[in-house]
Each structure stands twice: as structure tokens, then as C-alpha cells.
Amino acid sequence: MKSLYTFAAACALLCLLLVSCQCSPKSTQKAERPELPSGPQQVQLPAQGVYGGAYIDFGEAEDTVTLEALESFEGMVGKQMAIIASSSYWGRQSFPTKNMEIIARHGGMPLVFWSPWDEPYDQDKPEKKFTLTSILEGKWDAYIDAWGDSAKAFGRPLFVAWGIEMNGTWFPWSGWFYGKNQKTAGETGFAGSDTYRKAYRYVVDRVRARGASNILWVFHANSYSYPQDTWNFIRSYYPGRDYVDWLALSVYGKQFKKDPWVNFEGMVKPCYQDICSIDPTLPVMLAEWGVGEFSESGNKAEFIRDALQIIPKLPRVKAAVFWHERWENEDGSFSNLRVNSSPEALDAFRTNFAGPEWLERVRFAPHPPKVE
Fold first, then answer.
1. How far apart are CA 123 and CA 343, in angstroms?
2. Where does 113-140 have alpha helices with state H?
3. Residue 170 φ/ψ, nearest 5 degrees
């Protein structure tokens, strides 16, 4: 989740290039998958392989999920997605039931980025309405409860990542906006990370109290902390094992023109080791991964190839969600993270995603009955 800027019309030459890059071979038609199961379920962690997933450019607010988009993307890459990601912003004041039903009927498992953020969704600025302090004061209890009720009514399993990438400065729930490294008597000793921890737990407690036991809670941090200070390290924000079912990371290569080019292996291994050190057993998800098309800086096809080969070799990574989006930046440049940003990138994805280690459907088992 890196940009919410609307794509504007570009010059004729750019349009021609983009059109040429969107061409892709058709995949063999497959039988429809069964719908996502209902009732209490537990996700089976594959002994071998990784659940593949994607966010598929669902619009400016990342919540315009359509069956057509799902089928088009899966046809393009030649495989179905086990996990489909989309967003739910507090500014909507609603649960995305329609989106969840589309994904579930398609046989995928939803991953929802649930963000306490109001329009116009400006990055690098503090939130004025849905602040962490106002959440802890109970101002948004009715909305949280209603969201939890709707999640329970949905009835099928879903991943929910609340307040993602908190260890950066771009999203307004970051500790950067809540005292940063100001000393406190709290668990971490720092105001910023303590406030986030409390808000995370507060939200989870209220949703659980509504009976939404179908939610798997995802603690989703960025691959690197910015700034690199103790108060802002991933572990400083971790709310504890009682509040987390999966650990998760955003792992991106170059996204903006000014960024340096980095290779996937050098980037993923340190943050993977870091997040694994927080808890010795929880499964890990790359909840977002991708890279832009910057041919003057590096080879996107090689980045994708390396990622799809390396990810299944990381023992605790059990799911990985590719970020398929293109946007225009304020300076007029474009960030094209789409899988088909070039024929070479698409071919690298199709070829390396085709292996049996990339699983097309999340496997479940019913929760064991509670012992009274």
C-alpha cells in the first residue's frame, strides 16, 4: 500500500508503450473453485509451498473489488490466487461485505488492510479524525463494534491487518505522530510505540468481543524501519502473541524514480530474520511485495524471478501477496508495479509462479470444539 494517487492521462507515446506491455498470452480455462468455507476454520500451514496472493489495482481507495479484475489477473499470470488483498478505510465507516463476498465466492481468502484513515488519505501527515488517542478514548466504539458484527456475519475466514507499516512515517498511525521517542512508563518506554500497541489491542479486543472468531489477525510491518531508532523498531510495536495470528512484512524493491535499486535477496533476508525473532513459531506472510519498472536502474524480470524462487525457501513464510498497481506521482513520474509492466516481467512471473510450490487455494480444517 504505497500510493493512493489517481492515474491521470499520459502522453501518446507513454500510452502506446503501456498498451504494448499489457498484452499477455491467454491461460487454459480451469474449472471453478469451490467457495471459501463458512464456520470456524483454521488455516492449515503447508509443510511445503506458499499460498500465493495478489492485490489487483482495486482503485484509488484500494477497495473496488470486481470479479472481472480477479479473473483477468489470474488469466494473465496463468494461476489462481489463494489470497486476495484489498483495503477497508475507517473513512468509509462500513465493513466491505460486497468485496468479501466476491472474493469468497471466487474461492479466495480475503486479506483486509483495515486502516484508521480518513479522506483525502494524505501520506506523511497526522490523522485529524481517527487518531489513536480518540480510538483509546472510545470515540469510535460503535464503528468498531459494527465492523466486528459484520465480520462475524460474513462468517468465512479472513485475514485482517490493522494499522499496517507502522514503523515508517508515511501512515498517520505511526508512532512518529504519537510522541516518537518520548519517554514513558509503558511497556516499550516510548510514547509512540506504546500508543500504537494499546490501540491495536483495544481494537482487537472489541472485535473479538463481538464474536468475530473467523478473523486471523495480522501484525504487518514494513521491511525496514524509518527512522532507524530503537523506539521505531518492529518489535517495539508488537502487541503480543495473544493479539496476533500471523506476522507480516511489506517487502518492496524500487518504487520511485529517486529510490536506489536493491536486489530481493539482500532486502528480504534481514527483515525476515528480524520479524521471526519477535515470535519463534507464528507463520510469516509477505503481505505486500513487488517492484517498479525502472529499466535504467535494474531488471524487474530478474527481481521477480529471484523473489518467486527465494520466498518458498524461507521456512516460516507461508503466504506472499504480490502488489499489482500502477500510479502517477506528484512529480509527474510513474510507478508501475504491475506484473505486466513489460513482457519480460510478466514472463518471469508466469514462469516462476507456475511451480507446485505456489499454492492456489488456502487449505482449512475446522476448529476443534471448545472444552467446557
1. 32
2. 132-136
3. -80, -30
* CB-CB contact of 154 with 213 (8 Å): no
Domains of the chain listed by start with CATH number: 36-366 (3.20.20.80)
Measured CA to CA, the distance from residue 320 to residue 192 in angstroms comes to: 29
- How many C-beta atoms surround the C-beta of residue 372 within 10 A? 3
**Looking up cell 472510545, which residue turns up?**
138
pTM listed for this prediction: 0.90
Q: What is the pLDDT of residues 22-81, one digit of tens each?
A: 434 444 345 568 899 987 788 999 999 999 999 999 999 999 999 999 999 999 999 999
d(CA 182, CA 194) in angstroms, rounded, equals: 10
CB 198 within 8 A of CB 206: no
Residue 30, phi then psi, degrees to nearest 5? -110, 155
Single-letter residue type at 234: I
What is the pLDDT, as a whole number, of residue 2?
A: 54
- Predicted pLDDT of residue 263: 96
Beta-ladder partners of 249: 221, 286
Number of helices and strands in the chain (H, E): 10, 13
